Each structure stands twice: as C-alpha cells, then as structure tokens.
Amino acid sequence: MQAEEIIMIVREDTLKHQGMRKKLVEAIREKGIDDQAVLSAMQNVPRHLFLDKAFLVQAYTDQAFRIGAGQTISQPYTVAYQSSLLHVSKGDKVLEIGTGSGYQTCILLEMGAKVFSIERQKELHDKAKVLLPALGYSPKLFYGDGFKGLPAYGPFDRIIVTCGAPYIPEDLLKQLKIGGIMVIPVGEGEVQVMTTILKIAEGNYEKHELKNFRFVPMLEDKEWGKG
Ligand code: SAH
Q1: Which of 12, 149, 206, 225 lies at 20 to 30 Å from 186 by C-alpha?
Q2: Is the pLDDT of residue 16 over 60?
Q3: pTM confidence score
C-alpha cells in the first residue's frame, strides 16, 4: 500500500462510519458484552479501514471476514468476548498470537495495553506494519511462530491467542506472569472451546472452559524465511 493511499483511507472515517460503528457496538452490548472499556475501544477503532474499501457494510456487520492469505478478521463479538475475558489494565504487557488484520491489536492498544503481536503470514504481517502506524497505533509486530511466543520480551501480564490452538503451548504458559491471564481457543477440529488460564504460580494454573467458537487454525511447522 502506498503512503498516499493510506492517508486517503485514514481520512475516510466519517460521521457515517462512526454511526455504523455505534450500531455495531449496540448489537454487541445486546449480545451480553457489558465491559465499557471494550465497548469504547470498539467505538474508537475504525473497523472498515482493516478491510478493502468495497466491504464497508460487512465491516460493520457482526461477522468474520476474509482478509487475504486464507485468513479472517475475527467476528466483532468474538473480539469483544476475548477482550473482556482478558481483563486488561492500562500499561499491561499483552502478547497476541495471530496479528491478522491488526484489528484486535488496535482494540487492545485502545484499552491502554502495550501490545506485542506475532503473525506467521508474511503478507499480513507486512500489511499491518504499514496500516497500524498510519492509523496512529504503535504495537510491536513480529513475523514469527506464535507457538514459541516472544521469550526475549516476556513475561507478559496477558496473552491472547486469536487462532484455534490444537493444545495450550508450553512456551506461552512459561511467558505468562504469575497472576497473569491467558485467553485461548483450544480444539483440534472445526470447533474450539474458549479457555481462560490464570497462572497462580509456576506450574499451577486455574483453567476455565467457556463457550465454543470457530477460529482459523493455529499452524505449526513452517519453513521460516520463505514467506
Ligand atoms: N487477531 C486477528 C485475527 C486473525 S485470524 C484480527 O483481528 O484480524 C488468526 C491469525 O492467526 C491468522 O492471520 C493466522 O495467519 C495467524 N496464525 C495462525 N497460526 C499462527 C502461528 N503459529 N503463529 C502466529 N500466527 C498464527
């Protein structure tokens, strides 16, 4: 994307868009999300700028949508649900697995978190690296393998996995602070169970299994460096 094109896109967050967002936020509230910090963040992040111009209506409908490289931007309700389970406080260091479009990253930044986000698709990583700063956001974005996390930057107050994990990666548990929370959809098939993990002490975790969701899979065994 050219810088000029991005500036043009950035200018296109009009009152009309904000009105569409307000309706989406209302719909999400009606579905049971009452965390005001999450709802305000969703009102502030212009979701349509994460999709191609032609998909304005889809951007403000509560559904997942394709973003290229065979991946999707999560459904707004799912983003809201995971974000509220995370109980982010201002200044928290948050590790996100699966940058994708960068939308969830921006929601966390709006909530006052310092976000470190990993993506395994080079194309999506590169796009987010240009788009997010153009929208005024400053996350730390990494092209790499989410199963490994970011040992050099941890431990983290919060970890959010936005792809369907076949199991809970040991490296991520290690990189969670004591007292920290991880939110991760777990399941090998089509359906994953949203799971929260509270780290009580090294090797001691409290786990809760919540509702079912469908995520794109968290993938392993990539030949790094080949895009
Ligand atoms: N948070 C994103 C959701 C994107 S979908 C958003 O708001 O748009 C999940 C993303 O996880 C996909 O982009 C996929 O490429 C990525 N992913 C899958 N396996 C991964 C892994 N092992 N490490 C890092 N990212 C991974």
Answers
A1: 225
A2: yes
A3: 0.94
Closest C-alpha to 170, from 148, 153, 189: 148
CATH code: domain of residue 139: 3.40.50.150
Nearest CA, atom 13, ligand 1: 100
Q: Indicate the top mutation candidate among 49, 120, 129 to test ligand 1's pocket, ranked by most ligand atoms within 8 A of CB.
A: 120
Tens digits of per-residue pLDDT, 62-97? 999 999 888 999 999 999 999 999 999 999 999 999
Is residue 92 in some structural domain?
yes
- Tally of domains within the chain: 1
- Is 11 among the domain residues? yes
CA distances from residue 31 to 10, 35, 174, 184, 210 in whole angstroms, order as listed: 29, 12, 34, 21, 16
Q: Catalytic residue positions?
A: 74
Measured in degrees and rounded to the nearest 5, phi and psi for residue 33 equal -90, 115
Residue 226 has pLDDT above 50, yes or no: no
Enclosing domain of residue 53: 3-213
* In a domain? residue 91: yes
Q: Is 159:98 a contact under the CB 8 Å cutoff?
A: no
User: Considering the domain boundaries, does residue 23 fall inside one?
Assistant: yes
Task: Quick: pLDDT tens for 162-180.
Answer: 999 999 999 999 999 999 9
Task: List all residues whose CB is within 6 A of at least one atom of ligand 1.
Answer: 71-74, 97-98, 100-101, 103-104, 118-121, 124, 145-147, 162-163, 216, 218-219
Question: Atom 11 of ligand 1 has which residue's CA nearest to it?
Answer: 98
